Amino acid sequence: MGFESPLLLTLDLLGTFAFGLNGALAAVRFARLDIVGVLTLGMLTAIGGGIIRDLILGATPPATFSDWRYLTVAAAGALIAFAFSQRLDRLAWPIEILDAVGLSVFAVTGATKALDFGLGPAQAVILGAITAVGGGTLRDTLIRRVPSVMSDGLYAIPALIGALIIVVAILLGVEGFVAAMIAAAVCFVIRVLGVRFNLNAPMPPGVRTDDSDRADD
Amino acid sequence: MGFESPLLLTLDLLGTFAFGLNGALAAVRFARLDIVGVLTLGMLTAIGGGIIRDLILGATPPATFSDWRYLTVAAAGALIAFAFSQRLDRLAWPIEILDAVGLSVFAVTGATKALDFGLGPAQAVILGAITAVGGGTLRDTLIRRVPSVMSDGLYAIPALIGALIIVVAILLGVEGFVAAMIAAAVCFVIRVLGVRFNLNAPMPPGVRTDDSDRADD
Amino acid sequence: MGFESPLLLTLDLLGTFAFGLNGALAAVRFARLDIVGVLTLGMLTAIGGGIIRDLILGATPPATFSDWRYLTVAAAGALIAFAFSQRLDRLAWPIEILDAVGLSVFAVTGATKALDFGLGPAQAVILGAITAVGGGTLRDTLIRRVPSVMSDGLYAIPALIGALIIVVAILLGVEGFVAAMIAAAVCFVIRVLGVRFNLNAPMPPGVRTDDSDRADD
Q1: In chain A, domain spans
Q2: Is C10 left (phi over 0), alpha (psi -120 to 50) or beta?
Q3: Which residue of B20, B21, C112, C138 could cross-link C2, Cys pair, CB 3.0 to 4.6 Å?
Q4: Is B210 near chain A, with CB under 8 Å?
Q5: Do B66 and C205 touch (CB under 8 A)?
Q6: What's the confidence (pLDDT) of residue A163?
């Protein structure tokens, strides 16, 4: 994985847990699924980005699928969300935080693994972002929402920036734990500020950004 | 494939045929597609689960794609459904039976192949279920329905149970034709009973199971 | 790629550019996405078919992802569509032409690469068509439309014919630039005539083709 550090592995698993929780809550809120649907959607959100990353890299079977720790942590997040879905509805803020942690860590681990497999820098940055947003995109597609990556303020941009920082750091030879933490932290801060202040990327010329008839209504 | 037995290969092809028929009928009923759309959806339903399985295992090109028998049988099922769609509308019950056959066989073959490729037991069970439900999930996504695996009573659960039985059998050294048949039969019976008696997995606490405004309406 | 010829590489990149433009315009028109969404959808449309092709062939990382020229051309098409989306709305015809170019070239390159990787003739024809329609299918799924391949007149059929011609030519030993050009040209002409005269593949017996309540409304 390029992340043999126990702390980074812990962060990676924390991100998996957060996405499992998040995907399962989305299943409860937007699609009223039963326990199998909630578990499926939570786990797919948690490990889907890593599966897409590893399929593109040819690193099969995908690490997030073959490593039992990812499956366990993803399932735990989904089951907790299932059990406490009513109570967790009041806790939107910590869930957004955990979601941002997952986004940040997966962008960094995805880009690092892409470099390890010999991809070029630009491709590594893009694959880092794909890893970060992939699980959520599968989630939204299955419950028939326009994916967050295409409609939700600053979502792909912080992932791209985080991946860019770690790729530049590795190319400069300053790889390691500190560089990864800084890259993830920058991604995290941009994402959280974007959510907090409702920042948005530019719309096409002539399209008003305040219209309310977006496709995901 | 782990299934050199002619009878099991026959069952596997029968499952492919059933899913081809089923996917094509869904195309006619829910999306009013032309012959290309019906053929595409039927074949994707029939061989999609096996393709996902083999991509995850790194067994490329996927067996259901490179082996002409699967393509032929899938296309035959789809074309028959296209030609006789009006008449087949009155035959829902045999179609459900064939669908359950496909689900059962694919769960068993998928789990067996996963063990052959060195995945752990839990991963093999999950991959068996993914093989069983994967084609239908692609089908439902393309015609914009919430996938059966997330909303349709007992669909993933019998697949997981069937896969679990064959994995335990293989780990105990009692693999072979009889074990596979028993595993598939248990999956089949649970699925058919679930359809017959409209059984459902538990909903999240506080969500009534009798509400009719589900997301797939 | 089987296409070392500079002219065919140019055509391939032109097809990528056309699909990038087309996907981004679809993002602006049908989903009102911001710049990240437009760029994502444009690039996915442009390189998605090649990624699916290479995943099935086990040719990882996919050429359209690891080769910076495809990424650059796809991004350029998407960004131009973003900037000039209002003006391009009046230019539907050239966009359809470019889309048909992409469809034609990808059908031929996809089928050729499939033969290079040892697939059988029928599988190569199908994989050529998958390469041609794959990107557009991902595009339509993400913005929640029934994919063109299943609902839009003659779309898969010209791709299948173009792929069939190049496969037959290669099996007859007359491969090379001229054969590829003829195969792509036949696909292109059928597609353009289909759009121009609104040709459709047959509907299932008993389904009227003039009804207006199709699933993609």
Answers
A1: 6-196
A2: alpha
A3: C112
A4: no
A5: no
A6: 96
Considering only CB atoms, C66 lies closest to which of A123, A205, A209, namely A123
- Interchain contact, C36 vs A120, CB within 8 Å: no
CB spacing of B119 vs A61 below 8 angstroms: yes
DSSP reduced 3-state for A151: helix
Q: What is the rounded distance in angstroms from the CA atom of residue B191 to the CA atom of residue C210?
A: 39
pLDDT tens digits, B6-61: 766 777 788 899 899 888 888 887 777 888 889 999 999 999 999 999 999 999 89
Chain C interface includes A207 (CB < 8 A):
yes
Distance CA C180, CA A37 (A): 47
Token readout for C99 is 């889309």
Q: Phi-psi bin for C176: left (phi > 0), alpha (psi -120 to 50), beta?
A: left
Concatenated DSSP letters of A51-96: HHHHHHHT-PSPHHHHSHHHHHHHHHHHHHHHHTHHHHTT-HHHHH
Q: Do B141 and A143 touch (CB under 8 A)?
A: no
pLDDT at B179 exceeding the cut of 80: yes
Res. C2: pLDDT tops 50: no
% chain C with pLDDT above 90? 41
Nearest-angstrom CA–CA distance, A37 and A176: 39
At A120, which amino acid appears?
Answer: G
User: A27 and B150 in contact by Cβ < 8 A?
Assistant: yes
Residue C6: burial class (beta carbons within 10 Å; 0-12, 13-18, 19+): exposed
**Local confidence band at B200 (pLDDT 50, 70, 90 cut-offs):** confident
Give the per-residue SS3 of chain B: CCCCCHHHHHHHHHHHHHHHHHHHHHHHHHHCCCHHHHHHHHHHHHHHHHHHHHHHHCCCCCHHHHCHHHHHHHHHHHHHHHHCHHHHCCCHHHHHHHHHHHHHHHHHHHHHHHHHCCCCHHHHHHHHHHHHHHHHHHHHHHCCCCCHHHHCCCCHHHHHHHHHHHHHHHHCCCCCHHHHHHHHHHHHHHHHHHHHCCCCCCCCCCCCCCCCCCCCC
With an 8 Å Cβ cutoff, are C144 and A146 in contact?
Answer: yes
Chain C environment of B51 (Cβ under 8 Å): 56
Interface membership of A201 toward C (CB under 8 Å) = yes
Q: Is A172 helix (H, G, I), strand (E, B) or coil?
A: coil
Query: Which residue has tokens 């994707």?
Result: B44
Measured between CA atoms, the residue of chain B closest to residue A31 is B215
Contact partners for chain A, using 3 or more CB pairs closer than 8 A, are B, C
Overall pTM > 0.90:
no
Q: Which residues of A touch C82 (CB under 8 A)?
A: 204
Q: What is the DSSP letter of A173?
A: T
